Amino acid sequence: MLHEIQAVLAIECKNVSMSIRKKTIVQHASFSIAKGKIAGLLGPNGAGKSTLLRILTGMTQPTSGYVRLFGERTSVSTLSRLSFLPDRGKLPAWLTAREWLQFASDIYPDWDAERAGQLSVSLAIKLDTRISSLSRGEEARLQLLTCLARTTPLVILDEPFTGVDLLSREQIASTVVADLADGERTFLIATHDIKEMENLFDTIVLIGDGHIHAVDDVEGLRCAGKSVESRYREVFA
Ligand SMILES: Nc1ncnc2c1ncn2[C@@H]1O[C@H](COP(=O)(O)OP(=O)(O)OP(=O)(O)O)[C@@H](O)[C@H]1O
User: Fold this and answer.
1) For labelling, which of 27, 45, 66, 82 has a CA lying 20 to 30 Å from the CA of 107?
2) Strands (E), the chain
3) Alpha carbon of 190 to those of 29, 42, 112, 162: distances in Å?
4) Whole-angstrom Cα distance, residue 75 to residue 69?
5) CA dist list (Å): 148 to 32, 123, 201, 207
6) How many CA within 13 A on the CB side of residue 170?
7) Is the CB of 210 under 6 A from ligand 1?
8) pTM for the whole structure
């Protein structure tokens, strides 16, 4: 029975706490995300979103508690099942976008070259420009492409739209990510861009001051006459 429950959960975060230099950053965080869902991790600045995502991906060990991805404790094997866009990732500046994508296709066994080609068109990637000459938003798109061109069952994105302009954010949210959400892959996306993203989410996890304040089913919110934004204001205002 326990095995069956775990099999349908992409992410299970149990009583996770994290302290750095005696400062508590995440406290007793517990929630789960079912397979195939698109979940938003939402909360004010400094709430602990990036720290929690690093713990979920296995980049950082929690002080206590544990994480299971697809029923398995975070390990080398779970690492290969997720594609992670960290909040302050940087790509090698001396490469062109095309050279970077070639490199990425060599190192990731789950790279989908056809999808990478489609994404470079829809994300308007400047393939022959050196990464050092890309704007912040252009580099953010290239980083997003690098994550989305992999076929991992779990995609975790930390602020994928930093520096991306409003219309592109809307377009990327409504077409690129929505296209990839086939009910099989699971997405967890930390973002402040609630308006552009809210139509995409099935579930939202609201975190503030390192505490999980709520885990809501978005359809349930809508039935109760609430939007993701109004729920966010209700919890944090
Ligand atoms: N290595 C660290 N040492 C000390 N404090 C840290 C460290 N990393 C994070 N913090 C603190 O933990 C808190 C949560 O940071 P985190 O980056 O997880 O928040 P966030 O919700 O992602 O914020 P934002 O929305 O502003 O990106 C902040 O107060 C931050 O200063």
Assistant:
1) 66
2) 9-20, 23-34, 38-42, 64-69, 72-73, 82-85, 154-158, 186-190, 203-208, 211-217
3) 15, 6, 24, 11
4) 9
5) 22, 11, 17, 25
6) 3
7) no
8) 0.93
35-51 pLDDT tens trace: 999 999 999 999 999 99
Domain that holds residue 229: 2-236
198 C-alpha to ligand 1 centroid (Å)? 24
Q: Is the CB of 191 under 6 A from ligand 1?
A: no
Cβ neighbours, 10 Å, residue 199: 13
- Number of domains, the chain: 1
Q: How confident is the model at residue 169 (pLDDT cuts 50, 70, 90)?
A: confident
Q: Can you tell me the ipTM of this complex?
A: 0.96
Give the atom of ligand 1 at the shortest distance from the alpha carbon of 53. 18
Residue 47 Cβ < 6 Å to ligand 1:
yes
- Measure CA of the first residue to CA of the last residue in the chain; give whole Å: 40
Distance (angstroms) between ligand 1 centre and the Cα of 151 equals 29
Ligand 1 centre to CA of 210 (Å) is: 9
Instruction: Tell me the CATH number at 56.
Output: 3.40.50.300
Kindly list the distances between the CA atom of residue 63 and the CA atoms of 58, 60, 93, 151, 208, in Å, as whole numbers in the listed order: 13, 9, 35, 31, 19
The pLDDT value recorded for residue 2 is 52
